[in-house]
Design brief:
It is a single chain. The chain is an all-alpha fold. 63% of the residues lie in helices and 0% in strands. The radius of gyration is 23 Å and the shape is globular.
């Protein structure tokens, strides 16, 4: 259901994909099926209008999945081999998420045909059902899917992070409880209350932070390290990866430079500055926040790190080739 919400969040009065209808509008007795949905005309008048909406939406969805892509090692470290984790992700993620996205689009479009209004929220849609048994099953499915999704995507990684931050005081269980409390304090129901704000402000906004992080990780492992690591030094406080008191200044500077291009557009989007304050091409970079951050931070990181003396590992270990 989380995927359903994220793939097709719509607002009847604000979004161009909602089909036009007569003053009488369709009702629950409207005949038809998938063909009726596919025949609904687009509300985009021009190709440029479509791309202006599609690009930020794509960036928002990339940002949505960037969280799991960065913390996937919390799961893949338990894989028996490199081939096993590649196969598991290839089989488990693309087909299922493609199916969920398709279901989200079709179901949301169907609500317009059947009920005369676009309903993207599964809970609100279940409230339209007349069968009490069907409503009960739908609510149970929402509860189970929400619980399962949050445990896998939103609990494991931060719980590990908190546990590693103070291992003597915080274990995985306490880390999970801390994560749950913080999750409540950020009022997530307010984020999804406005689909436009959720996608174009929240998702695109934090994708401008996650993109640079991903770019630095990819650049470091594939271009700087050449997929070669010194395993024992990963656990040393005074090893090859200690840098300056445990901080890699090149990575931190690259992170800041990767975030920088998206700041003007973000400030305009949230209404803190006037749109005329910056040139349109600069604020337009915000629509590509994850991509600009990813490539900018990764590029700067490679430039900074490769300008140093090449690191010669004591032991070469290839973690990428599938066995």
């Amino acid at each position: 259901m989380k995927a359903l919400r994220s793939c097709w969040c719509s607002k009847p009065s604000s979004y161009p994909w909602q089909p036009s209808r007569s003053s009488h509008g369709p009702t629950a007795n409207t005949p038809g099926g998938l063909s009726t949905i596919l025949q609904i005309p687009s509300r985009f008048q021009t190709t440029s209008a479509f791309w202006a909406f599609f690009i930020p939406g794509l960036t928002g969805m990339v940002g949505f999945w960037a969280t799991l892509s960065l913390n996937i090692p919390d799961f893949t470290r338990y894989a028996t081999s490199q081939r096993a984790q590649i196969r598991g992700q290839a089989i488990g993620l693309p087909p299922s998420m493609t199916l969920f996205a398709f279901i989200g689009v079709v179901v949301t479009s169907a609500t317009t045909v059947i009920y005369g209004t676009t309903i993207w929220d599964p809970v609100a849609l279940a409230g339209r059902f007349e069968s009490k048994a069907l409503v009960s099953v739908a609510m149970l499915a929402v509860a189970v899917s929400t619980l399962a999704t949050n445990i896998a995507a939103n609990i494991v990684s931060p719980a590990n992070d908190f546990a590693n931050l103070a291992p003597k005081r915080i274990d995985f269980r306490k880390g999970g409880l801390i994560t749950g409390v913080i999750g409540i304090l950020i009022f997530p129901w307010k984020l999804v209350a406005d689909p436009g704000g959720y996608i174009f402000t929240w998702l695109v906004g934090y994708s401008s932070l996650l993109g640079p992080v991903g770019g630095i990780l990819i650049a470091d492992y594939y271009f700087v390290r050449k997929q070669q690591l010194i395993p024992e030094d990963l656990y040393l406080t005074n090893g090859a990866y200690t840098y300056t008191k445990g901080f890699n200044r090149s990575a931190l500077i690259s992170l800041a430079l990767g975030i920088l291009p998206s700041i003007p557009g973000f400030l305009v989007t949230v209404g803190l500055v006037n749109a005329a304050t910056f040139p349109s091409w600069i604020t337009g970079l915000y629509s590509y926040a994850w991509f600009t951050g990813f490539f900018a931070a990764g590029g700067f990181y490679c430039l900074f790190m490769l300008s140093r003396t090449a690191h010669q590992p004591k032991e070469e270990v290839n973690y990428v080739s599938a066995d």
